[in-house]
Design goal:
This protein folds into 5 domains: 187 residues, 2-Layer Sandwich (Dna Ligase, domain 1); 150 residues, ATP-grasp fold, B domain (D-amino Acid Aminotransferase, Chain A, domain 1); 129 residues, Phosphohistidine domain (Glucose Oxidase, domain 1), CATH 3.50.30.10; 163 residues, Phosphoenolpyruvate-binding domains (TIM Barrel); 121 residues, Phosphoenolpyruvate-binding domains (TIM Barrel). It starts with 6 loop residues before the first strand and ends with a helix. The chain has 804 residues and is α/β, with parallel strands linked by helices. The chain is built from 30 helices and 30 strands. α12 links the parallel β17 and β18. α3 runs antiparallel to α4 and α16 crosses α19. The radius of gyration is 30 Å and the shape is elongated.
């Protein structure tokens, strides 16, 4: 096949060949040539060049007719776009394929069948010559045909691919991105199918698709062929892998979320004209992850290798958007597509825009939040494509799911809400590209949300997107990060919700001064640790049933707690790696523990829980010792299995010096030995005894984190929850400032780290100034106050320099 005019085998194609074979084929060729030798599996195939497309048009004398069809088109007129698009496609569908071109395609297909077996099943994929560029993905604009066998089906699929250059969405997309319709050609990729219909497939990114955090691989996975994920017809499994420790050989899966995966796309029956079909996934399979940990890690390694390769070629970091498939016959994992990620990687990193909801109302539906924005408007439920022309700018688009055909109206929407879909579905990808908030996988949205209803879609509250009743007030804050100076005093942050970690890591910081376990336990785990160790003691049938539901699929209930807690903490530690992340071991009060599932069977009623059985006193007591063991197992997993050794552990409410020894001994029993593998252990300095005996406590701990809330309460004798005494609770009181000063000086005297993680410096800039003047090592602030307090810290440091 040396004299081919229109065929290029993947091994002959590089990333430089976009003008000839389009973005998809150029990328596949690049990987086939350059990366199969590095262990990445890519199915073989060939490209039908863009010259073939022009040859078809010229042979049918169709070019002038196409130009006339699109002349004067207004893409805002959806009806006119549909009429003209259909006419343009028919012009190409009615064109005959020239004999010389078809002869070359048949010959190449025969050669591929020699490699893979007679009548090879192939994917026939469109590859436009202007797609997969760094600032315009063109993803999903043209058609793909799967499970194509034999000459007749292959010829038909090729002609349909050529015609799909003029789908309504492709025409609209080119107009919006200022591409000339007749300077964009279409190549076709013919690639051996991976039998993922018998296994699973998905999409992965080498960047977090919502926050733009660049140090993770984000993987989605569902059973069957990959079209369902892209089209948003399934809610897939989701996985995060942390790249820096993956490269060091750690099993660095920092999060896993189980998707519903209700359907899967498989091959059509026998000789049926139906090439693919969707079938229901059995209940047991839905409740299991569709790939195992070894496969997750292998895919992540593939992704990192691909990103590194493209980054070297471009001379800068290039986050990638990658499609993968698992072959159910061989068990092998294949890469079937890779392109530059075109949304987060293009955003300016020196401007941080944050949305804040000023009001709350009843929540109508929830789903996965896409982006970090908020929008309000009137609902418009669109049941199918035929209703698209009725959509008006500024409305909230509500649909079962979206496809590329919907894109002409999606750009007009205030927000997008779909019943189905995960974070890599079509609605999610397009909404990110357009900068529109979307809530996907919001089950029941098309039933609960009615056309004309006023709603607010909030994607600014973490992973869960919420649709509130009414048009609520919200505001945005923009921060310019370019001109910020570094402070000598370390400015750290307080954080409890792992879902906010990636985006908050963009704020200039020195790490996390206080990461609380309580949010992770109450929101992710929901069960009292002791109820997982001793489920037989949970007498309430409803509680027992819910615990069984939550822990289903785990080899033990204890493993459920350990994995969930390690994922939450691991996500925070990864987001700020290699900066220190100080994690406080659990500090629920007994009444708060009792509110967890099964909790009332393990907790006593106390008249004053704030001063009762909490913090360090629980860890070595028989009533909670086994629960603390689970906490220790989780922290050990984060440090040793995930490789996140930037994790520092902190003990709360340690009343006596002998108690410090007991807690450290308990931790050592569970593999957390202070000093081993660089493990540092801090103590909350929040009880007057911690300050008065700081020299003695220093023998047991590496640092002191002043908890100004409790230290104020116990210094002034004021219940910090009392409304009557609210005015008396003031961290700026001279007695409190004096005991804080004693703590800072005592830590210095003993060569220990001193920090403060209470509320005071976030609320009172003058308190932050006081801490700087006292020489504190770090101040940990609430994220929303960092940018307000940093200038005050800088000014104080400059004033101190002038004063000598």
């Amino acid at each position: 096949m040396e004299n081919n005019r229109y065929i290029r085998w993947f091994e002959e194609v590089t990333i430089e060949d976009v003008p000839s074979v389009g973005g998809k084929n150029a990328s596949i060729g690049e990987m086939y040539r350059e990366l199969t030798g590095k262990g990445i599996k890519v199915p073989n195939g060939f490209a039908i060049t863009a010259d073939a497309y022009w040859h078809v048009l010229e042979s049918a004398d169709a070019l002038e007719e196409l130009k006339q069809t699109l002349e004067g088109l207004d893409t805002e007129d959806v009806r006119d776009l549909a009429i003209r698009g259909k006419k343009a496609r028919n012009i190409i569908l009615n064109a005959d394929m020239p004999d010389d071109l078809w002869s070359e395609i048949k010959e190449a297909y025969d050669e591929l069948s020699e490699q893979y077996g007679p009548d090879a099943d192939v994917a026939v994929r469109s590859s436009a010559t202007a797609e997969d560029l760094p600032n315009a993905s063109f993803a999903g604009q043209q058609e793909t045909y799967l499970n194509i066998h034999g000459y007749h089906s292959l010829k038909d699929a090729c002609i349909r691919c050529f015609a799909s250059l003029f789908t309504d969405r492709a025409i609209s997309y080119r107009v919006n991105n200022n591409f000339d319709h007749f300077k964009v050609g279409l190549s076709i990729g013919v690639m051996k199918m991976v039998r993922s219909d018998l296994a699973s497939s998905g999409v992965m990114f080498t960047i977090d698709t919502d926050s733009g955090f660049e140090e993770v691989v984000f993987i989605t996975a569902a059973y069957g062929l990959g079209e369902n994920i892209v089209q948003g017809l399934v809610n897939p499994d989701e996985f995060y892998v942390f790249k820096p420790t993956l490269k060091k050989g750690y099993k660095s899966i920092i999060d896993k979320k189980l998707g519903e995966k209700e359907i899967k796309m498989i091959y059509g029956r026998g000789d049926s004209r139906i090439l693919t079909r969707n079938v229901e996934v059995p209940e047991a399979d839905r409740k299991s992850f569709c790939i195992n940990d070894e496969e997750i890690l292998l895919l992540a390694q593939y992704a990192v290798t691909i990103e590194d390769h493209y980054s070297r070629k471009n001379g800068k970091k290039v986050p990638m958007d990658i499609e993968w498939a698992k072959d159910g016959e061989t068990g092998e994992l294949f890469i079937v597509q890779a392109r530059p990620e075109t949304v987060q990687s293009q955003k300016k990193k020196d401007i941080l825009e944050t949305y804040y909801l000023d009001q709350k109302s009843s929540v109508i539906v929830t789903g996965r939040s896409i982006g970090r924005k908020i929008a309000a408007g009137r609902v418009h439920v669109i049941p199918d494509v035929s209703r698209l022309p009725s959509f008006k700018p500024g409305e909230v688009l509500v649909a079962d799911t979206t496809t590329p055909d919907w894109e002409p109206i999606m750009k007009k929407a205030a927000a997008i809400i779909t019943n189905k879909g995960g974070r890599t579905c079509h609605a999610a990808i397009v909404s990110r590209e357009l900068g529109i908030p979307a809530v996907v996988g919001a089950a029941g949205a098309t039933e609960k949300l009615k056309t004309g209803m006023e709603v607010t879609a909030s994607c600014a509250e973490g992973d869960v997107g919420r649709v509130y009743e009414g048009m609520l007030d919200f505001h945005t804050e923009s921060l310019d990060l370019k001109d910020l100076e570094n402070t000598r005093t370390e400015v750290m942050m307080n954080l409890g919700n792992p879902e906010e970690a990636f985006s908050l890591s963009m704020i200039p910081n020195s790490g996390i001064g206080l990461a609380r376990l309580e949010f992770i336990i109450s929101s992710y785990i929901q069960v009292h640790p002791m109820a997982l160790v001793h489920p037989e003691r949970v007498a309430d049938a409803n509680d027992a049933e819910e615990i069984e539901r939550l822990t289903k699929g785990y080899s033990s209930k204890e493993d459920y707690f350990v994995e969930k807690l390690s994922f939450g903490v691991g996500t925070i530690a990864a987001a700020f790696y290699p900066k220190p992340v100080v994690v406080r071991m659990s500090d629920f009060k007994s009444n708060e523990y009792a509110s967890l599932l099964g909790g009332r069977y393990f907790e006593i009623e106390e008249s004053n829980p704030m001063l009762g059985f909490r913090g360090a006193s629980r860890y070595y007591d028989e009533r909670y010792r086994e629960g603390f063991a689970l906490e220790c197992r989780a922290m050990k997993r984060v440090r040793e299995e995930l490789g996140l050794t930037n994790l520092i552990l902190m003990i709360p409410f340690c009343r006596r010096v002998d108690e410090a020894g007991k807690v450290l001994a308990e931790m050592k029993k569970h593999g957390l030995e202070r000093g081993k593998n660089g493990l540092q252990v801090y103590v909350m300095c929040e009880i007057p005894s911690n300050v008065l005996l700081i020299d003695e406590f220093s023998k047991y701990f590496d640092g002191f984190s002043i908890g100004s809330n409790d230290l104020t309460q116990l210094t002034l004798g004021v219940d910090r929850d009392s409304e009557i005494l609210a005015e008396s609770f003031d961290e700026r009181d001279e007695a409190v400032k004096r005991i804080v000063s004693m703590a800072i000086q005592g830590a210095k005297r003993n060569g220990k780290h001193s920090g403060l993680c209470g509320q005071a410096p976030s609320d009172f800039p003058e308190f932050a100034e006081f801490l700087v003047r006292e020489g504190i090592d770090s101040i940990s602030l609430n994220p929303d106050s960092v940018m307000q307090i940093v200038p005050r810290i800088l000014q104080t440091e400059k004033d101190m320099e002038k004063q000598g």
